[in-house]
Amino acid sequence: MLNRILIDPQAFVIKQETRHGSVLLNQLDKRTWSPDIADTATHIHYTLTGGVDRWQRPFLDLSVSGSLKLNCQRCMNPVDFPVNEQARIVLFDNEDKLDEAMLADDELDGMILTDELDILTLVEDQLLMALPISPKHDDCGNVNLDKVNQDKPNPFGVLAGLKKG
Ligand SMILES: [Zn+2]
User: Fold this and answer.
1) What rounded mean pLDDT belongs to the chain?
2) What local confidence, expressed as pLDDT, does residue 34 receive?
3) Among its keywords, does the record have Hydrolase (predicted)?
4) Is 67 contained in some domain?
């Protein structure tokens, strides 16, 4: 497995640092390789930025993007699944403050401030939340039709050819 990317979240926030990079899906924790993923050799891009919000709370802004191929749970053919996730994770010194803030705002993403934090763990968690429980094509029948059409010459083109002849 890939080396982890450790930061000191407190320093990261104070210096308003930004880190970005990309990682192959198959280098991430196996938790993210759901059996629905058709291709694990795909790049996942991330950006992490530290800052302080207007309530003076330290936060980490995380964005995770990539284009995954999942196995359609109906026809088992690959289905494209673009990932473009943004999250703000607010950091709290203790459990009480975290609980209080979470109760006041159910949209809030929070975690306890630790001495060390692994960026890739955040990326993995974000990916896991983004993955659909049961990926499916909107219309499996149409997907197959598209494929057939691409392989065959356009019938109107054939007709035009006949007329010319
Ligand atoms: Zn399908």
Assistant:
1) 87
2) 73
3) no
4) yes
Tell how far the Cα of 128 is from the centroid of ligand 1, in angstroms.
21
- Which has the closest alpha carbon to 46: 61, 36, 26? 61
**Cα 144 from chain centre:** 27
In a domain, 147, yes or no: no
- Residue 133: per-residue pLDDT: 86
The range of the structural domain enclosing residue 87 comes to 6-138
- Which of 137, 113, 119, 129 minimizes the C-alpha distance to 31? 129
In a domain, 154, yes or no: no
Q: How far is the CA of 143 from the centre of ligand 1 (A)?
A: 7
Number of domains observed in the structure of the chain: 1
For residue 112, the CA-to-ligand 1 centroid distance in Å is: 41
C-beta separation of 66 from 44 below 8 A: yes
Q: Which residue has 């990079």 as its token pair?
A: 21
